[in-house]
Specification:
Shape: elongated
Oligomer: single chain
Number of strands: 22
Structural class: alpha+beta
Radius of gyration: 33 Å
Strand content: 15-25%
Helix content: 40-55%
Distance between the termini: 40 Å
Largest sheet: 6 strands, mixed, barrel
């Protein structure tokens, strides 16, 4: 009989004794696996929906985008020859209500979308009341129609049948736009959607040289056509067109990137839950083995080797872990079915709930490796203890270090867990920081808790018996103080960090930013309007700090002569290469910028093109002063040498650009101007009305509205992160419950002995309250320090926003968690207080 077969026979016989003491073990494992499996399955369901609706989301099999210029006649003819062609034009504009109530808002920034008769090539637009899109947008009695988002009606106090002005054109509101198949392009929109006919766009007068307009040409290709081949042919036929081409396989890059980031974050939360629960796993295994000292001693006396003992109990633990993992997988499998009905309001696609083996397999692998990592060490340590000492110290076995095999299994599982997390994470840098941060925090908590136990041991013998007993319980043999502090502390630290980050951002958005930010951004000011614009604002009372700069759109085409598709671009810099970017030219260093490398060019510079580049983007693209960047502006490639790198304070909300070119490079290109202005409180509506009445093509972006929207997003994200942090805190509470369950017999024994010696239930309860109060305060204190440091790093180094410490919020979070620990710990030991002395003493 092989060692494995013998070990399995013994393990199977041991399992017949039931699962006593393993409830917490299974709960910890199930919780972590369920989070990872559920997140992975939901992400897979959303990805399946994206794949199914990819053509509708993109608007065709292929989309060719141009910024600020439309396709030429030859380019249109070429595209039309490839399949069915649809043209969509997008820009921002102002909608002015002609029949708004006197006390209502008269105008609003909108996202204008002009579509032709072929739109949509895939899917369908849903209108309320139901009607054909062409009919809703058609011209009747000399007035064009429009379909609008319901938020515009609410914002302007309008109803269907009312009329609005967009630029110099008039439009009657004929339908509410309930659904547009390619709505994924509007994830980051600043205003409500307004859809009009492509032929009606000319009536607005908004299509002027330099206006910030995006043109999209969508193709529905014949069956069997190769979208990539058509894209290559278009590039080869018109190499100077400056097209940015996407196929249906890359229909929603922004949504996909957001989904990947959310998925990796929540998966790492699940992994952290497993790490916290791993402490509970180790405690449960250690407690179980302490109850098996007689069996282990007998096996070793009968000649069982350390390897056999290790195999016996490892097989037992893995068999039990299989049940916890399976339960977690079932819960994770059901998550998409429960969540999908709530997603359509937030996503432009319908997720496909179903069975997805890959995320479930990954979750099972995480659970198995976590079990091996945390269970192998205590099993190996139990196998190393001498038989004689096992018999002599059945109540409190001596601690021993495991042999090489168990230590190798635990270490190998830890490394495999780390490798799996990094290999499956879309952003390995974030995964690395997260994992090592969580592991480092756990180590700090354990070390600090160990120091607390040592201090309790050196505290002497206080005169009050209750305090003396509480301190002794903190460092007695088998005390779970370190494990409980570490497990609860990590969850509390995350809550503290989230609270501080949210409080800082909320204060920044509601107080600090509005004080130093301009009141309005004005976009699409034509070159021949800039003098009249400046004159108008100078005549308005209460308006100050007017600043305007030229604005163009361009696409980064090459880095040091290497096409950007083949050049190195890190994850944090890909946003700058995914689409056209705003850029400008300037003689002087823009406000809100600080040179960190190189020199600024002279104000009267005339020479080869130079560029000032954002320092963070340069790091992400591995660029330095002296390197070159090629930018495609209106179909023309401009290659410029990097003269300097700038650190940009985006929180100042001044006009700033990541790309600033030297004078003499872009002055002759069609361009518009962006301007900012401040006004006294209460004068915002008058300023907006004066500018948009005088210049119908100019769009006004109210900074208050933008900050309020951003504040709502930050609050929603903070709430979601708090919920995920609570999952980690639940794992810590499970560890606490496991520690209480493991020490229940010792608690009963202590209570009985104290009662025999004359202690009252109130005195015993007081000692338990002091013990758990100290544990809770220690966990909260350490967590507040670590959470505060984490928030400081995130705010100052990652988000680059000012740091403020909110003592009240931190104190409330820490004390609330300490109170939770106290209540949970006392509730778990309440039964021990009611134990009668006589039966217990007779049994012993």
């Amino acid at each position: 009989m092989t060692a494995f077969t013998l070990a399995w026979k013994i393990a199977r016989r041991e399992l017949r004794g039931g699962l006593g003491g393993f409830g917490i073990f299974l709960a910890c494992l199930c919780l972590g696996v369920a989070v990872i499996a559920g997140v992975g399955s939901l992400a897979a369901a959303i990805n399946a929906g994206l794949s199914r609706d990819a053509r509708a989301l993109l608007g065709g099999d292929l989309e060719l985008n141009l910024a600020q210029q439309s396709a030429s006649r030859d380019e249109r003819a070429f595209l039309a020859g490839q399949g069915t062609l649809s043209e969509v034009t997008r820009l921002r504009a102002m909608a002015i209500a002609e029949s708004a109530p006197e006390n209502g808002r008269a105008r609003s920034l909108i996202e204008l979308k002009a579509v032709d008769r072929a739109y949509p090539l895939y899917g369908s637009a849903t209108l309320e009341p139901p009607q054909a899109l062409d009919a809703a947008l058609a011209q009747r009695d000399g007035v064009w129609g429009a379909a609008v988002a319901r938020t515009l009606l609410d914002r302007l106090g309008l109803k269907l049948g009312d009329t609005i002005r967009i630029g110099s054109g008039r439009f009657v509101l004929r339908a509410v736009l309930a659904h547009e198949p390619d709505s994924v392009s509007g994830i980051y929109e600043l205003g409500p959607r307004v859809m009009i006919a492509q032929d009606a766009l000319a009536s607005t007068g908004l299509l002027v040289p330099g206006a910030l307009v995006a043109y999209a040409y969508r193709l529905r290709l014949p069956t069997g056509s190769d979208a990539q081949a058509v894209a290559a042919a278009a590039q080869q036929r018109f190499p100077e067109a400056g097209w940015r081409i996407r196929s249906f396989a890359d229909a929603a890059p922004n949504l996909q990137e957001l989904l990947d980031r959310v998925t990796v974050f929540l998966t790492l939360v699940g992994l952290t839950t497993l790490l916290v629960g791993g402490v509970g796993i180790a405690n449960a295994v250690e407690s179980y083995l302490a109850a098996k000292v007689d069996t282990i001693a007998t096996l070793k006396c009968l000649g069982a080797s350390r390897r056999l003992v290790f195999l016996v109990y490892l097989l037992q633990i893995l068999t039990l872990a299989g049940g916890g993992i399976l339960a977690g997988l079932v819960i994770g499998l059901l998550v998409p079915f429960a969540a999908v009905p709530f997603l359509p309001a937030a996503l432009p696609i319908e997720a496909q709930a179903g069975f997805y083996p890959l995320p479930l397999s990954l979750a099972a692998a995480y659970g198995l490796l976590a079990t091996l990592c945390f269970a192998a060490w205590p099993i190996g340590a139990a196998g190393e203890t001498r038989p004689a000492s096992l018999f002599r110290n059945a109540a409190a076995p001596e601690r021993a270090r495991p042999a090489a095999l168990p230590a190798a299994v635990a270490g190998g599982a830890a490394l495999a867990l780390l490798a799996l997390a990094l290999a499956t994470a879309p952003d390995r840098l974030v995964a690395t920081w997260f994992i090592f941060g969580a592991a480092g925090a756990l180590i700090v908590f354990r070390l600090t808790a160990a120091a607390m136990m040592r201090l309790a041991a050196f505290a002497g013998r206080p005169r009050r018996p209750g305090l003396r007993l509480a301190l002794a319980n903190l460092y007695r043999p088998g005390a779970a103080t370190a494990a409980v502090v570490a497990s609860l502390g990590l969850g509390i630290a995350v809550l503290v960090a989230v609270t501080l980050v949210h409080s800082d951002l909320a204060t920044e958005l509601s107080e600090s930013l509005p004080q130093r930010a301009p009141s309005f951004f004005f976009i699409d000011i034509e070159q021949n309007q800039i003098a009249g614009f400046d004159k108008l604002l100078a005549s308005l009372p209460g308006v100050s700090d007017v600043r305007q700069v030229p604005s163009l759109r361009g696409r980064i085409a090459a880095l040091n002569g290497i096409p950007v598709e083949k050049a190195f671009v890190g994850p944090d810099a890909r946003w700058a290469t995914s689409s056209e970017r705003g850029l400008t030219y300037a003689a002087n260093l823009p406000p809100g910028s600080k040179l960190v490398a190189g020199q600024w060019w002279p104000a009267d510079y005339h020479g080869p093109p130079l560029v000032s580049f954002a320092a963070d983007l340069a790091r992400g693209m591995r660029l330095k002063v002296g390197d070159s960047i090629t930018i495609n502006v209106l179909g023309r490639d401009v290659t410029a040498t990097i003269a300097n790198l700038r650190a940009i304070d985006w929180t100042s909300l001044n006009i700033n650009f990541a790309i600033v070119l030297s004078p003499g490079t872009l002055e002759g290109a069609p361009q518009s101007f962006i301007a900012t202005a401040r006004t006294i409180p209460g004068n915002e509506a008058a300023l907006e009305r004066a500018v948009t009445d005088a210049f119908p093509n100019v769009s006004a972006i109210d900074v208050r509205d933008a900050l309020a929207t951003l504040g709502d997003i930050v609050a929603a994200i903070a709430a979601a992160v708090r919920i995920t942090a609570a999952v980690t805190l639940v794992a810590g509470a499970l560890v606490l419950a496991g520690a209480i369950a493991a020490s229940h017999r010792r608690r009963v024994y202590d209570a009985v002995v104290l009662k025999v010696l004359g202690a009252t239930r109130r005195q015993i309860a007081g000692s338990f309250l002091i013990e758990y109060g100290l544990v809770g305060l220690a966990a909260a204190l350490i967590a507040c320090v670590i959470g505060t440091l984490a928030a400081y790093f995130l705010l100052t180094q990652v988000m680059r926003v000012p740091w403020s410490f909110f003592a009240r919020e931190v104190t409330a979070t820490g004390l609330g968690a300490a109170a939770l620990t106290l209540a949970a710990g006392f509730a778990g030991t309440w039964r021990a207080l009611g134990a009668k002395a006589a039966p217990f003493l007779r049994d012993d």
